[in-house]
Design brief:
Elements lengths: L3 H8 L31 H14 L3 H5 L12 H17 L6 H4 L5 H12 L3 H14 L7 H18 L8 H20 L6 H8 L7 H19 L12 H4 L16 H9 L1 H15 L3 E7 L5 H20 L6 E8 L5 H21 L8 E7 L12 E7 L33 H25 E13 L10 H17 L5 H5 L10 H11 L2 E10 L10 H21 L4 H18 L5 E9 L1
Parallel strand pairs: 1-2, 1-4, 2-3, 4-5
Antiparallel strand pairs: 5-7, 6-7
Helix pairs in contact: 7-8, 14-15, 17-20, 18-22, 21-22
């Protein structure tokens, strides 16, 4: 006869809430206890998070092996199996799928825990060294203060877990704790962006150094104050232009059109053509698509637009023939702002198709592969194409144009702060360069994220844009052209042909980044691998009977005419660019002007 009282007593722990055998009705095998997945190199953080979660459920005694598996005849056997398997399910849900098969057939959760610990828990020494190194080298750069502080705090917390301070009740413990707090305060302050120099000085001059948390609050308050100033909306007086609705290259084929004045851009594209074609060939060979998607972002109009498309098509055709593979069909998307002269491109398409067919016949009488071309109006700082439809993205002389004039170019009274000039100059307050940099970071980051969604994995981009050498914004490079255009406008102000307020409220939506600024954004976003970064200069554009100043002036006019005429009126254009050409010739004769161009070749990760 079975003693029911003894059996009931033995099983009772499963019904008591303080028993490790107790299972709450909400517990189920599909639960995720922690918000991270064990991949191997994050074992310390993962195991700490799991220990917290399992301790909260009073299940750590199963993980540590303190609660041994009972004999099959034991009344608690079924309950033990149930709880053990529940914990195993939770662990399987929180490890990378590649790790699941390595522990799936281990019966005891204690054995699984010990196995993962043995595999992934490195000795404390290397990890402590790595953390100390991270802490010493971590800097805010252009991250938000919150992001920088959270990264630093995560390193400190893990270091505390691996290398805790000795515990004692003596007075020395409080002294050691305070010294550690001060060291961390200094680490936090040293990594901040130099723009916070004033608040750093205020913190260090306090009679008693504050806690890290208090210092963080003070810096955060300073950051918020800056954003209020920088993000104030422009007033009607500043008359910031709607770039997407106004900006476009001068259309048609007239003397001031972009089609007639884009030889500098063509020369640059030809200088780096080998790199561009190499990227095209690599993406074709690595992916071998049956239908290849190609986008030219900022295509403009004129001969340059279809020239690069022809080169890309011929490169893919030649490569496919060498590897004896069928040539893919081509999907070509031409993108620019809605105000672009797409009609000029459409008019040139019949001749373009005929030339491709004739070239194909000359090579052996083969039919040209299907080619589908379409215009996609819109800003490339917005989404343009469906997911993973592109294999190659090309953009030439477009990414230095910002999505808008930085809205931070106003003071707390919503008045323009960059008076008398139209770009970053010697007379500009420091916050002008900061506003331009912030706008570029916002735009370029958005561009990278959007293209990463539209490109297939392994897709390539070649980007050509104007840049600058080193950290200084004002030089005799690309910024100097804007300085001379500002002088030309000032001459019209002096003559009474342009109102001074009009000049004060006009700023260009342009930014020449440095190599470091571009590489930092690419590395921080982690969406693309930077394969090539080339810096080059163009030789002076010497046309027959046309001076260097006139050649540059007509090029700038073809680009900026829409914006300048919208803000100042069309009546000033001829006089403005005559002044500009003359000043350019005078400056070029006095000292060389050396604008630089960047080429970036990237692969989507």
């Amino acid at each position: 006869m079975v003693d029911n009282s003894q059996t009931s007593s033995a099983i009772a722990p499963a019904h008591e809430q303080n028993s490790p055998y107790f299972m709450h009705p909400s517990d189920n095998p599909g639960s995720n206890l922690v918000g991270m997945v064990l991949t191997g190199d994050n074992y310390n953080n993962w195991s700490r998070a799991m220990e917290i979660a399992l301790s909260a459920k009073n299940k750590m005694v199963f993980v540590t092996g303190e609660t041994k598996k009972p004999a099959a005849a034991d009344p608690t056997y079924v309950s033990w199996i149930r709880v053990n398997n529940m914990i195993l399910s939770w662990i399987l849900n929180s490890i990378h799928p590649d790790l699941v098969p390595t522990v799936l057939y281990t019966e005891s959760v204690a054995d699984v825990w010990a196995d993962l610990r043995e595999r992934f828990l490195a000795s404390n020494g290397p990890r402590v060294f790595h953390l100390e190194q991270k802490i010493c080298t971590l800097a805010q750069h252009d991250d938000a203060v919150t992001k920088y502080y959270n990264n630093l705090r995560s390193y400190w917390d893990e270091l505390n877990n691996l290398d805790p301070l000795p515990q004692c009740s003596c007075s020395a413990h409080s002294i050691i704790t305070k010294q550690q707090e001060n060291r961390r305060l200094f680490q936090f302050l040293m990594g901040l962006n130099p723009r916070y120099a004033n608040v750093i000085s205020q913190i260090l001059l306090m009679d008693a150094l504050p806690s890290v948390a208090r210092a963080y609050a003070l810096v955060l308050q300073d950051e918020s104050h800056r954003h209020i100033q920088l993000d104030c909306p422009p007033s009607d007086q500043t008359n910031k232009l709607d770039v997407e609705k106004v900006f476009h290259m001068t259309g048609g084929v007239g003397n001031t059109s972009y089609a007639k004045n884009s030889s500098l851009q063509k020369k640059a594209a030809d200088m780096v053509k080998s790199i561009t074609m190499e990227a095209v060939q690599q993406v074709y060979l690595s992916l071998m698509p049956e239908s290849i998607g190609i986008a030219d972002l900022g295509c403009s109009s004129g001969p340059n637009t279809l020239s690069i498309i022809r080169d890309v098509i011929e490169a893919v055709q030649g490569t496919s023939q060498r590897v004896t593979s069928p040539t893919p069909e081509f999907r070509v998307y031409l993108n620019d702002l809605p105000t672009n002269d797409f009609n000029s491109i459409f008019k040139a398409l019949p001749d373009f198709h005929r030339e491709l067919r004739e070239a194909r016949r000359r090579e052996g009488g083969l039919c040209h592969p299907p080619l589908y071309m379409a215009a996609h109006p819109g800003s490339f700082y917005g989404r343009l194409f469906p997911n993973k439809c592109l294999h190659f993205v090309y953009s030439s002389y477009s990414l230095h144009w910002l999505s808008r004039v930085p809205p931070a170019l106003c003071d707390e009274n919503r008045e323009p702060i960059n008076r008398g000039t139209i770009y970053i100059s010697e007379s500009s307050p420091p916050c002008v360069a900061e506003a331009y940099l912030r706008q570029f970071q916002e735009d370029f980051t958005s561009f990278l994220h959007l293209r990463s969604e539209e490109l297939v994995s392994g897709g390539r981009m070649v980007l050509i844009l104007l840049g600058r050498r080193g950290p200084h914004h004002v030089d005799r490079g690309n910024s100097f052209f804007w300085e001379l255009l500002s002088r030309s406008l000032s001459m019209l102000v002096a003559k009474g042909e342009v109102e001074e307020e009009k000049l004060d409220s006009y700023d260009v939506h342009f930014y020449a980044p440095s190599e470091d600024e571009m590489e930092r954004e690419i590395e921080r976003e982690g969406l693309f691998r930077l394969d090539r970064f080339e810096t080059f200069e163009l030789e002076r554009d010497e046309r027959d009977g046309v001076s260097y100043g006139t050649a540059v002036a007509t090029t700038v006019r073809a680009i900026q005419e829409s914006m300048i005429s919208h803000h100042f009126g069309e009546g000033i254009l001829d006089g403005l660019f005559e002044n500009y050409a003359r000043i350019l010739d005078e400056e070029a004769a006095r000292e060389e002007i050396r604008p630089v161009t960047f080429l970036l070749a990237l692969t989507k990760l």
